[in-house]
Specification:
Blueprint lengths: L1 H10 L20 H4 L5 H4 L11 H18 L3 E3 L5 H18 L7 E5 L4 H9 L3 E5 L9 H10 L4 E7 L11 H10 L3 E5 L19 E3 L20 E3 L36 H35 L17 E4 L1 H7 L3 H10 L6 E2 L6 E4 L7 H22 L9 H4 L17 H5 L20 H4 L13
Parallel strand pairs: 2-3, 2-4, 4-5, 5-6
Antiparallel strand pairs: 1-7, 6-7, 8-10, 9-10
Helix pairs in contact: 4-9, 5-6, 7-8, 9-12
Bound molecules: pyridoxal-5'-phosphate.
């Protein structure tokens, strides 16, 4: 078993190996000290419906975290019941809906959502029984405030909420955020601030103070719970006082006052409680000063990448003073047009250079989004920038006609160890294929070469023996 697990981890590219520059995902390296407690029997072996008298420790853990998160976000109350950011969104929108209905305003059904929003926002709004009206973005990627004003005037009695992400998924702080909040409040709507990008705010600004009525956070982003592969998450929902009565409840909640209400948003009263010790330890180990510094370093790292790579790839959106927030979008669309090299090629070529791919074609098709987080030191940031710059030079060689896009190492990427032996008929050397940044004894070797993108998702390919083989 140990050898099997070791083999799987050898094939995996995780943060213990190097940078995972996924934009919008906040992939941080989690301290082993933060991870250790979740395997202690006292935490690991507790049943979700353990009687209150036998789960005092967990309740203390939950109360600590909910209290700290309220302080960090500037809201009055937090519920850690939702199991994901998207579930936190649904819980928050149901709270807004419950609030409007309690005041007899049942006609408020419209949720304004900027074009730059994460896909889950619109999905959650529809699940909460709302109608989505999209707010335009301006040329620079920020919310079009005039469009917000127009939509507020047009639908004033019907507006339930606006869902706005701050800083936005375009990687910029929108300096009109307070104005947007005021416009929506002005017509009786509520403001949902998507707090998944809190890594760009913690210790510096509080969404509950600049206009939000409700937010969700992602403990599996900002607060260090490892994620990827759909593993368990925690998406706490944080609200101001008037929405407290509409937070998730649970008929079997250990706290009597939380048994009745709008009902559960996830199966267990405390959601994914088993992974809360990670975030608890993170906050305690960092302290207020450490959390604030982490935010500064994360934003600094993103700006460092934007400045170094900005000379080689256009950075699509920048905010005030040409700065970005916690992530930046590299625009490859013109380069792709000129050379035929696609974002997919660049993402896969990065694997040869020893990196996980960045976020591709989200939120803008044909771009790459990079979020370094505070986890990466200068050496790793430079290794990443150097790789991207070397790839840019490879694209130039394609554009200059030295290789066709199809024959280039970009299209051939990623290259496995198998490429080192046997026939080799490609237009570039084996060395350039597998050691583009120089010979490295610790190189990450991908286990499989390129597979055809979405083909495998849409066509079932069975690798097991046919039933006849067992006859
Ligand atoms: C990640 C993210 C979400 C959704 O969180 P999940 O836990 O994946 O459901 C929502 N909004 C934004 C801006 C995000 O980055």
């Amino acid at each position: 078993m140990l050898r099997y697990l070791r083999r799987l981890s050898g094939r995996d590219y995780a943060l213990d190996r190097g940078m995972i520059p996924l934009g919008s995902c906040t992939m941080k390296l989690n301290a082993t000290a933060e991870m250790e407690p979740i395997s202690l029997p006292g935490f690991a072996d507790m049943h979700p419906f353990t009687p209150a008298a036998d789960s005092e420790g967990y309740r203390r853990l939950v109360a600590d975290i909910e209290g700290w998160l309220a302080e960090i976000t500037g809201y009055d109350r937090v519920s850690i019941q939702p199991n994901a950011g998207s579930q936190g969104e649904l819980a928050g929108l149901l709270a807004i809906r419950g609030y409007h209905h309690s005041r007899g305003e049942t006609g408020r059904e419209i949720c304004l959502i900027p074009a730059s929003a994460h896909g889950t926002n619109a999905a959650s709004a529809v699940m909460a029984g709302m109608r989505v009206v999209v707010v335009r973005s301006r040329e620079d990627g920020t919310i079009d405030v005039d469009d917000v004003r127009a939509k507020c005037e047009q639908h004033s009695d019907e507006i339930a909420a606006i869902m706005v992400t701050y800083p936005s998924t375009h990687g910029a702080y929108e300096d009109t955020i307070t104005e947007v909040c005021e416009l929506v409040h002005g017509v009786g709507g509520q403001v949902y601030i998507d707090g998944a990008n809190l890594n760009a705010l913690v210790g510096h600004a509080r969404p509950g103070e600049f206009g939000g009525d409700v937010s969700h956070l992602n403990l599996h982003k900002t607060f260090c719970i490892p994620h990827g592969g759909g593993g368990p998450g925690v998406g706490p929902v944080a609200v101001r006082e008037h929405l407290v009565p509409f937070l998730p409840s649970h008929p079997d909640h250990p706290e009597v006052d939380k048994q009745r209400g709008v009902g559960p948003i996830s199966a267990a009263p405390y959601g994914s409680a088993g992974i809360l010790p990670i975030s608890w330890a993170y906050v305690r180990l960092m302290g207020a000063e450490g959390l604030k510094r982490a935010t500064s370093v994360a934003v600094l790292a993103a700006n460092y990448v934007a400045v170094r790579l900005g000379e080689h790839y256009p950075v699509l959106y920048r905010g005030q003073n040409d700065l970005v927030a916690h992530e930046c979008i590299l625009d490859l669309r013109q380069l792709s047009k000129e050379s035929g090299v696609t974002v997919d090629d660049v993402a896969k070529r990065l694997v040869d250079y020893g990196f996980h791919a960045p976020t591709m074609s989200f939120p803008v098709a044909g771009t790459l989004m990079v979020e370094p987080t505070e986890s990466e030191d200068l050496a790793e940031l430079d290794r990443f920038c150097d790789a991207m710059i070397a790839i840019r030079a490879e694209i130039s060689r394609v554009a200059a006609g030295e290789w066709s896009a199809d024959e280039s190492p970009l299209r051939g990427a990623p290259h496995t160890a198998r490429a080192l032996v046997g026939e080799w008929e490609r237009a570039y050397s084996r060395e350039l294929a597998v050691f583009p940044a120089g010979i490295d004894p610790d190189k990450y070797w991908p286990a499989v070469a390129r597979i055809d993108q979405a083909y495998g998702d849409r066509n079932l390919v069975c690798a097991c023996p046919p039933p006849e083989a067992f006859a």
